[in-house]
Amino acid sequence: xxxxxxxxxxxxxxxxxxxxxxxxxxxxxxxxxxxxxxxxxxxxxxxxxxxxxxxxxxxxxxxxxxxxxxxxxxxxxxxxxxxxxxxxxxxxxxxxxxxxxxxxxxxxxxxx
Length: 112
Fold this sequence. Notes:
mainly alpha; 4 helices; about 80% helix
């Protein structure tokens, strides 16, 4: 479970970073502060995934806190995200993936 959570964290970080870059280069880009915050979150997500692969407890702890924060923010932002043009099933799938990652992280706490 711990290895799956670590790989999923890296995948989520890469996806978040790629999506942010695509949106930043769009005709109507989001504010620069949001782009920088999302790129920073993507980098931290990738770093925590790599640390979890190396079995570092600090990486696991930071991943739990970061992903719980991202999940809460996603729940609050879903209406705005859908109004912004992202299809509702895609937004729901992203939130579901975050919830699954948090659940995997909590279940795999003994591995760290």
